[in-house]
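Pinned message: reference record for threonine ammonia-lyase
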Amino acid sequence: MSGGNVCPPMERENLPLDRRLRQEILFARERVYRFGQPTLMERLVLPGPGPSPEIWVKREDLSPVKSYKWRGACNAMTQLTAEQRAAGVVTASAGNHAQGVALAAKTLGIQTRIYMPRSTPKVKQNAVLHHGGEFVRIMLSGDSYDEAVMAAREDQHNSGAAYVHAYDDLHVMAGQGTLADEVVLSGHGPFDVAYLQIGGGGMSSAVSCWLKTYWPEIEIVGVEGVGQASMKAALEAGKPVELHDLDIFCDGTAVRKAGENPFGICKDTLDRMLTITNSEVSAAIRVLWETLRCISEPSGAMGLAAVLKERASLAGKKVLIVISGANIDFLQLGLIAQSEGSASSVSRTLRVQIPEQAGTMLRLLDTCFEGLNISDFQYGLHDAQQAWPVFTITAERPELLDALPAKLDAGGYRWQDISDAVDVTFRAIPLRGDLLMHPVFLRLDFYERPGALHDFLSRLIRGRANLCYFNYRQSGERIGRALIGLDFPSAESRTAFLQTLPEHGEGYRSCKPVDDEVMARLTSAG
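Predicted structure (tokens):
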């Protein structure tokens, strides 16, 4: 396989950018594989009914640094002269490029300083040190990637070190292009369409250039997050422009301005752009886990998110996506798992007004919410006459949720859709202690199955106490956990309830009163 005649170095400088890139990808073949091996191509079958394309996944998450970035960094650093190596290397990165540079630094014996934002998680810092060892120093500077770049550039100016750019460098781009070379050589092509995520454009420019060389008819779709679409902005403006605001949920592609060299390629190789939401990315991360048992970082799942968005129109086509990385902060997994996008069902969050009277909460559950799953329940007593419990309801089919408003209206309830409300997101549950008479708070662990929570309330509480507090959120475990507040009309009825309350019972694993100190904190507000 050849990308054309190879020109001498001086002549290559005068070639058009796309021809220079193709030739550099050919040379990169000879360099990158001393640092790592080709990555797997794997078939992904989408779950669920409906039409589905034939999807092939390039598993860059299985590379030496768990992302494709090793290719470009290693290729670029092999091209440094002896003088440049002696002066050392400096770069800036939020994580993945840093690990690639660290791997090359240790293998080639080059002293390297890597500037990273001060907010960089320890797990990424430790990975850089693991790959680079004694040849790498991490310099934490600024609160963003842009500020880290400024500090690294100042270091370059003062020290004379060579700067290895994360994406706007022809050798870096060519190194990333070797993943496309492996796709061509895999025998799974040709592909009808490839969805390529874009940050600064280093990977998408090289991969699109190489795929178009061998499969001219392939459609290349550039994929960006709605709040970080720097290449889309560049294409619309005719040149790279700087974004004012930048969403960093997909941190691996959170680049404020597309690279000049990548833009020079992408303007000719990208057939169209597609933007996706963080919720759509979260849904794609879940699909990758459920199908390939792959835990992708948000940026790594952007290609699949685009496929899911356009699934209906892709039936019968052969599709290529790249899992570009798996360097996700462990703490971020919890946020993604609890996000609306990663849920396997649709949901709505409603605030319903009911009289502050015994039995009205159960009556609401018995009628309007029958057959629906309550994934989140927030309520605190803060008015003597009216209550406003907040429910997040999920259902496998949208039409079940669509029927809920009519049920509430028929029952005479006033209600409000408050999905994504700030107070609900941060679980700001009001409770007025001065309205309570003889409260008790229970820590309840119950078995997560349809109706279990309702059964507990109906069997043990109905007619004995008023519900004054409820804090429950579905976690995905087989055991649900809730903090429940009950208010009794007298101290005697409260004591009688506690004496007869089974610690274990049908439908629940444990029910215990919280200690007096916790109860005092919950009821201290007057």
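Pinned by admin. Summary line: The two ends are 78 Å apart (CA to CA).
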